[in-house]
Design goal:
The structure holds two protein chains of two kinds.
Chain A (H helix, E strand, L loop, with lengths): L1 H6 L3 H34 L1 E2 L8 E2 L3 H8 L1 H32 L7 H13 L2 H11 L6 H5 L13 H26 L3 H9 L4 H12 L1 H16 L3 H6 L13 H11 L3 H29 L4
Antiparallel strand pairs in A: 1-2
Chain B lengths: L1 H26 L4 E5 L5 H15 L3 E5 L2 H14 L5 E4 L1 H9 L7 H6 L10 H6 L1 E2 L2 E2 L1 E3 L5 E6 H7 L10 H11 L7 E4 L5 H11 L17 H15 L6 H6 L2 H6 L3 E7 L3 H6 L1 H6 E4 L12 E3 L3 E4 L6 H12 L1 H9 L11 H5 L8 H5 L4 E3 L6 H16 L5 H17 L2
Parallel strand pairs in B: 1-2, 1-3, 8-9, 11-13
Antiparallel strand pairs in B: 3-12, 4-5, 6-12, 7-9, 7-10
Helix pairs in contact in B: 9-10, 19-20
The chains are: A mainly alpha, B alpha/beta.
Chain lengths: ~300, ~425
């Protein structure tokens, strides 16, 4: 009966209520995402004055400058390096952990789940401060424990890897929770069938688990890639301006921050994020096309 | 029923916006907002504000934001029209803020004030906050640079302490002796981005300059500047200073307070840090900077902060009362006596010197004999930042000092041409 009453509503009413209900989201999106996006594109074509005054149109000059800027070019390499290391490891380790923590006969399952998820609950700034002290060359716990002198965060050869490891560590818990949710959907029959066929643990993982949670896997990889391309907070918190490893570690977003907020060349900073946006769009588009080959929607 | 629902929903949405606006309005009738960047000075400034509140009944709240984020936050506030009522100004940024009319013009208020008399503060400091003959901030403090050293480590090495008779060569020789062969202790430390309290002093001591007086070109590629900086290059290449990695992770004062470094140049604003640390309070003391043997000069790059008011402050009169009080003889004396930092007001330095009897703060006062105002232009931050990127390479031993100085001058000149 209630279905009937719903249907009896006129199309106009449905239309009206539809808009009213999505209004908060639309307004939020417009104010927080769409308008800034357009402003950023606008700014990237201008030489901006102090405090957002006196814009001078300079066409694509900011973009030209960008590709001859050694620091920006290096930061593009750094960003990709970080993404290539951080995403696969944080996804793979989380997936393996999720499968292990999904076994019903396991003892202390929720304790483990909580421990792995903890980094996600802690403020990123706090994480960065703790790691910064752990990795300090002179006074750090890690160097003093093993009696070594490695500039984890200051040696240009290691900086990006240290930052990536912290990125992996802090993302594992979040990815794991998503995988655990995906694993709940996998029917037990498939595993029983696989066992009857004599499949071992690794075969079950590769031939049953991975294909069946591939939609979740795809979602995690896409969102993690986007997040990794935008890495900023750990670098910002852990590396001082005078850090000799900064040039070989700083990401595009860090470069954007430096240009827009420290040197206050907002136009140039905007051009940097637009380039980042294009990179992310391209990568995501490729993933969306490629997923047709490996993601199975049941 | 449905219509009522619609109206309710719209009201809620509209109310959210109204509420967001209303909240900002109410804040303005609360205490005055004060923003500073040095947490070492916060307790002392708070005491001065308490005195002010007791006198006038006007309350003020301090917010401390560290140096790097201070300017980001302030710029955002300036652009969004929500600057704090009262805040510190620095010569690196004052030109931009004054020329863009972000600061309240206090010229007439100063003229009328019975507490503030221009003659009682160094003219150089007023000049930092003067734009087109109008004043935009009241001088808060002055600073000079001196050499801190660790007495215990000097005693251990059997060397005599630094004093006014030292040349830069003496410092080099001592640093060499003090640096442990296994590099567990270093004789000296000067971070690549410590310019005002660090390497600028060397450049000016050798009659070089960082910025020409008409602010049109850099002096870093001039022979005097390069020659002066070769001294620093020697310290870098002979590992008499910790590596750039170590110095970037731990500030110079931290390295001294942990006994890793024996000597470092520090501004007078760092005294509270050395006073409040038990180890440095017991073991460290301060002397004049060495002098340049060729020129006989011992300059100190100096600077002074100013108390500024936001132009769009809705409580400009109250804010002025606070700033006027900060600049008054009473508060300036208190600032000196509490050892917060050296005050800008004339004849307060003796009080500051006596604030920590254990340290030879007279050294800082002696440095006032040859003072050079910290170089600044409209876009100081831009060329300082670019210069630092290059100095970082010199300190990391990637390029020579001479290459670095020439490159820094070239980039600075480009930026200045654009001003």
């Amino acid at each position: 009966m209630r279905n009937n009453s719903l249907r009896s509503k006129t199309a106009g009413q449905t239309f009206f209520w539809g808009w009213v209900l999505i209004l908060p989201t639309v307004v939020g999106l417009m104010v927080l995402n769409i308008v800034p996006l357009i402003t950023t594109i606008y700014q990237s074509l201008h030489k901006t004055g102090d405090f957002g005054r006196g814009y001078i149109f300079i066409g694509l000059k900011n973009y030209e400058k960008l590709f001859s800027d050694k620091l920006v070019r290096q930061s593009i390499i750094n960003t990709f390096k970080y993404t290539i290391i951080q995403v696969p490891f944080s996804v793979f380790i989380a997936l393996v952990l999720a499968v292990m923590l999904n076994r019903e006969n396991m003892r202390g399952r929720s304790a483990y789940r909580t421990i792995f998820f903890l980094p996600m609950v802690v403020a990123p700034a706090a994480i960065a401060m703790i790691w910064r002290w752990l990795l300090n060359t002179e006074f750090g716990l890690i160097n003093n424990l093993f009696n070594i002198r490695i500039g984890w965060l200051t040696d240009p050869r290691f900086g990006i890897y240290s930052v990536a490891i912290i990125g992996i560590w802090s993302d594992i818990g979040y990815n794991m929770i998503l995988f655990l949710a995906g694993l709940q959907e996998v029917p037990r029959d498939y595993y029983e069938a696989a066992e009857l066929d004599g499949a071992n643990v690794i075969q079950k993982f590769a031939s049953v688990t991975v294909p069946l949670i591939s939609p979740v896997l795809f979602f995690v990889i896409v969102t993690r890639m986007i997040a990794a391309m935008q890495v900023f907070d750990t670098i910002f918190m852990m590396m001082e301006r005078a850090n000799p490893a900064l040039a070989k570690t700083q990401s595009l977003v860090y470069r954007f921050y430096q240009a827009s907020f420290i040197v206050k060349e907002i136009g140039y900073g905007s051009a940097i994020v637009i380039v980042l946006l294009l990179f992310i769009l391209a990568i995501t588009a490729v993933q969306l096309i490629a997923q047709k080959r490996w993601v199975h929607y049941s | 029923m449905k219509k009522v629902g619609t109206i309710l929903l719209l009201l809620i949405v509209a109310g959210t916006f109204l509420f967001a606006g209303g909240k900002a309005e109410t804040v303005k009738s609360g205490p005055l907002s004060v923003m500073i960047w040095d947490s070492n000075q916060e307790p002392g400034i708070r005491k001065i504000i308490d005195d002010f509140t007791a006198k006038t009944g006007i309350e003020a709240e301090i917010q401390v934001v560290d140096w790097a984020n201070y300017w980001t936050l302030l710029a955002a506030g300036a652009q969004g029209g929500s600057l704090p009522d009262v805040f510190w100004m620095h010569s690196n940024e004052s030109q931009r803020y004054m020329s863009n009319e972000m600061l309240l013009d206090i010229t007439d208020r100063v003229a009328k004030s019975s507490l503030i008399d221009l003659a009682n503060y160094p003219a150089d400091i007023w000049s930092l906050y003067t734009y087109e003959n109008r004043y935009y901030a009241v001088p808060k403090d002055v600073d000079t640079i001196a050499l801190w050293y660790n007495k215990a480590l000097f005693d251990k090495a059997g060397l005599s302490y630094p004093d006014a008779s030292w040349t830069w060569d003496d410092l080099y020789v001592a640093a060499k002796k003090l640096t442990a062969p296994d590099r567990s202790v270093y004789g000296f430390a000067n971070q690549s981005n410590n310019n005002q309290a660090g390497w600028y002093n060397l450049v000016y001591g050798n009659n070089g300059y960082v910025l020409s007086e008409d602010k049109t070109h850099s002096g870093l590629d001039k022979p005097e500047a390069i020659e002066a900086m070769k001294w620093m290059e020697r310290m870098i290449l002979e590992d008499l200073m910790p590596s750039q990695s170590v110095m970037s992770e731990n500030a110079e004062d931290v390295l001294m307070q942990s006994g890793k470094v024996v000597m470092a140049m520090q501004g007078s604003w760092m005294v509270p840090s050395f006073r409040d640390n038990e180890y440095s309070y017991e073991n460290c003391d301060v002397a004049e900077l060495p002098y340049n043997a060729r020129t006989g000069r011992r300059p100190s790059i100096y600077n002074g902060l100013g108390w500024a008011i936001a132009k769009n402050s809705t409580r400009a009169d109250d804010a002025w009362k606070l700033v006027e009080y900060f600049g008054s003889k009473e508060a300036q004396l208190k600032q000196a006596q509490l050892g917060i930092t050296m005050s800008a007001y004339v004849n307060t330095s003796e009080d500051w010197k006596n604030s920590v009897p254990k340290f030879n703060l007279q050294a800082y006062l002696n440095m006032q004999d040859d003072m050079v105002i910290r170089p600044f232009s409209k876009n100081t931050v831009k060329w300082e930042d670019a210069t630092h990127d290059i100095m970082l390479k010199v300190w990391s031993k990637e390029i020579t000092m001479e290459q670095g100085m020439r490159e820094a001058a070239r980039i600075t000149n480009e930026i200045l041409a654009d001003e």
